[in-house]
Please model this.
Amino acid sequence: MASIVYAMESLLVSRENSVVTVTINQPKKKNAVNPPMWDGLAEIFRRIASNANDRVVVVTGAGNDFCSGADLSGRGEAASSAGGVARPNHLVAMRRVNAACIALQHLPQPTIAKVRGVAVGAGCNLALGCDLVVASQSARFSEIFARRGLSLDFGGSWLLPRRVGMHRAKELAFFAEIVSASDAAEMGLVNRVLPDHELDEFVDQWARKLAAGPPIALAQTKRLLNNALNVTLEQALDDEAAAQTVNFSTADTAEAMRAFIEKRDPKFTGR
Model:
């Protein structure tokens, strides 16, 4: 049975068998994220990153939706002050969004986005920022920013070209259309699309399988792949050699070798 390890009204975190589930809990607002929630997400991701017992992270939304992006209620209104009109400091607000995005990207553990319903705007990029995206057939994705008079955020300008290529990224960003789960799979935005009633079980299976894997090796593989488009082949080879040198010094690699010889499944401890 899952245990709650962190909770606030709008964000829930539970842990079960080294799998951490982060749930955005604003179902009445389609899990829109307000500024304190961005701070909360950044804090949660940082805590998980430094916890060796947490091996996999699942990000999802409560109810029937993943995340409708930033909660923009009140953003279009200016607050009155004695000296006239005081505009909200949008740059400071975006720093809070950015901190959550960076904390997600810095997680060494594999991350899975479990998507039902809408994943739009920053919510779309929250999903795409995870290593794996599993969607129900009801899921809908959109870089909806242009419809709101906005440009991409939560890393969308960095994530989209890496996921689908530059021309498709521009199409998604310029037209801001709603993309079905099946179309998202065809574009390469998601890894799997499943009937809604199969989504939870499938993600649980993937999460358990990853949690049983070698944490140090998986973290290094994740880092190598995340850096792949930023380095030369020679740099990538050097990084791979360094990573393998670390792996061969761990108890997990020794355990994997023994398990192979003994024809059994290895038991990884993260050491």
